[in-house]
Amino acid sequence: MNQVRLSRVLFIGYVTLVLLFLVLPVLIVIPMSFSDSRFLSFPPPGYSLRWYDAFFSSNGWMSAAQTSLIAAVSTALIATPVGVAAAYGLNVSTHWSVRYLKVLLLLPLIVPIIIVAAGVFLSYAMTGLLHSLPGLIMADVMLALPYVITAGAAGLQGFDNSQEMVARSLGMNRFRAFMAVVLPQIKPSVITGAIFAFIQALDETMVALFIAGGQNQTLTVRMFTALRDEIDPTIAAISTLLTATSFAMVMLVAMARQRATA
């Protein structure tokens, strides 16, 4: 009994240390974002909102933030229906090629991101899409699709296909049966996929470094450039805002899951 209790204590302690290791950078960055110092320092010598004001009053930062938001929202709006449709097709199809198609659709999660970025850059260089907003959105959609497909597939695995068959036997075509019967029951998974597509596009850096620039420079690319040229505490403020946004999105996913199981 004592060995079981000791093992449980050790396991909880190990998990706690891992969580602290993952959360510690955030716990350091947030206080630094409220520092009144010209340089990044921890703990801050004083507290102020000057770096948040510097972010919101800068045309350059605001332009980059606008580009990132447009790309993230557009990615979620495009990747969600495409990814859900792909997940549904993979779920109902019995053709031998489905397993290979699924691997193909999930390749952006498997291939190293630097290889993906180089491939996208070379493709865009030949098609004239470099430094364009449509090109950025297309790349973000490609990277977001695996998340939407995975979330949609998870929702469809718990769905009773006989309900759709009943709807189709009553005269509905496949599309109407999906919209009326399937979609309402997998809505939490669809919302999850959309939110993760939004977060992925908002935080994406590596591919954007290769293809985004000029007036279509994203927020993360501008942050990377700023860190390379000068360590500006404004970066800490932006990082805090991005972290808060991602946390809020994840909480929406949790709320959607909770409502679905209630």
Largest sheet: none
Determine the fraction of residues in helical runs and give it as a percent range.
over 70%
Rg estimate, integer Å: 22 Å
Number of strands: 0
Distance between the termini: 36 Å
- The residue-averaged pLDDT reads 82
Give the percentage of residues in beta strands: under 5%
Describe, in plain words, how this protein is organized in 3D.
This protein is mainly α and 262 residues long. It contains 13 helices and no strands. The protein has helices at 2-33, 50-56, 59-92, 98-105, 107-110, 113-127, 133-157, 161-169, 174-185, 187-203, 206-211, 219-229, 234-261. Helix 3 (59-92) runs parallel beside helix 7 (133-157), helix 8 runs antiparallel to helix 9 and helix 10 runs antiparallel to helix 13 (234-261). The chain is globular. The model has no long low-confidence stretch (mean pLDDT 82).
Sum this structure up briefly.
This protein has helices at 2-33, 50-56, 59-92, 98-105, 107-110, 113-127, 133-157, 161-169, 174-185, 187-203, 206-211, 219-229, 234-261. By secondary structure, it is mainly alpha-helical. The radius of gyration is 22 Å and the shape is globular.
Distinctive features:
globular; mainly alpha
Furnish the topology, listing elements before pairings:
Elements: H1 2-33, H2 50-56, H3 59-92, H4 98-105, H5 107-110, H6 113-127, H7 133-157, H8 161-169, H9 174-185, H10 187-203, H11 206-211, H12 219-229, H13 234-261
